[in-house]
Design a protein that fits this description.
14 helices; five-stranded mixed β-sheet; Purple Acid Phosphatase, chain A, domain 2; globular
Length: 323
């Protein structure tokens, strides 16, 4: 047996992005909302998101020789809010991937996160998803939008959550790109459905790597995925950064979608409205290396592969807070 290492949400800030301190406040015009965001960042989420680059190298030092590694998305800080189509975000993601590829080589598999592709700022109306970012992730960074690996009795599947859940991001998409995204979304879901249906026909259990759990209800509606649900051993998500958010999400599963309180609340409640299916997917969160300011609870996951039973048993490993 060998170790499987999973890490997520490294949010590297390269030299260009390091010059953009206060980037999120600059996207907010309303003084009251700008003040709220600064307090939220200072005490709850992340006071200095550019102070934690060293944690990626810390993981590499701690786990130098695993059998396999999966990096589950969000390689860049995305200070421009449009993903790696913007040069600063691209530079940051390139740095993070170079560190991982030097350390782990062909043992590394990567999925894409929402910040790699672009999303609107937490408050304000800056940015959104960009076709160029998705294409550049594939062509220049070498991260496929869909991948799978087969092992005796098992299949790993890595999906692009923003693409699978694109209807949620439709309003954040430039008008002249929407037809392309709609077609890519349909093709992505069809390809995912085929992989699950094939795994089910071959008697393979599955491990799903999906950055943002917003995508899971869209996958649940696919007939091949629905038929394969009993064989899902675990679904590893990122995106939420901390187990506290996962616990709150489970408590709020089923809440109505709220469309009048801004794009972030609309996006969050759209995900939570259909979050009851997370249980069927056997969701397990990989925290970000930093966790959040409030709890300082960052880390990564490890398990032994192949698993000895029907369940994949994860061990969470904490990282010391230094920011």
């Amino acid at each position: 047996m060998g170790a499987l290492l999973v890490l997520s949400d490294v949010h590297r800030a390269g030299p260009i992005e390091q010059t953009r301190r206060g980037f999120d406040s600059q996207a907010v015009g309303n003084p009251f909302l700008r003040g709220f965001q600064r307090v939220y960042r200072r005490y709850v989420w992340m006071h200095d998101p550019m102070a934690h680059n060293h944690l990626l190298e810390a993981i590499v030092r701690r786990v130098p020789d695993p059998e396999w590694v999966v990096a589950n998305g969000d390689f860049t800080l995305d200070t421009g809010f449009v993903g790696v189509s913007e040069e600063g975000a691209y530079q940051s993601a390139s740095e993070a991937l170079a560190i991982l590829r030097r350390a782990y080589g062909k043992r590394l598999r990567c999925t894409l996160g929402d910040h790699d592709i672009g999303k609107k700022s937490f408050i304000g109306d800056a940015g959104g998803v960009r076709r160029r970012s998705l294409e550049r992730c594939e062509s220049d960074l070498g991260i496929p939008r869909l991948w799978h690996e087969d092992f005796p009795g098992w299949r790993w599947i890595g999906v692009t959550s923003t693409l699978a859940a694109w209807p949620v991001f439709r309003v954040e998409t430039p008008q002249d790109e929407q037809a392309w995204w709609a077609a890519a979304h349909a093709a992505h879901l069809a390809a995912i459905d085929r992989l699950f249906a094939e795994a089910n026909a071959l008697g393979l259990r599955t491990v799903l790597f999906c950055h943002d759990p917003t995508a899971l209800p869209f996958l649940r509606e696919l007939p091949g995925v629905a038929a394969a649900m009993p064989g899902i051993g675990t679904t590893v998500i990122g995106h939420l950064h901390t187990r506290l958010v996962l616990r709150v999400g489970r408590l709020l599963a089923g809440v109505p979608q709220v469309g009048w309180a801004g794009h972030s609340i609309r996006r969050y409640t759209a995900a939570l409205n259909k979050a009851r299916c997370w249980r069927e997917f056997r969701v397990h969160l990989c925290p970000s290396p930093t966790g959040v300011q409030l709890l300082k609870d960052g880390g990564y996951l490890k398990t032994e592969w192949p698993p000895t039973g029907r369940e994949v048993r994860w061990a969470a490993h904490d990282l010391p807070w230094t920011g």
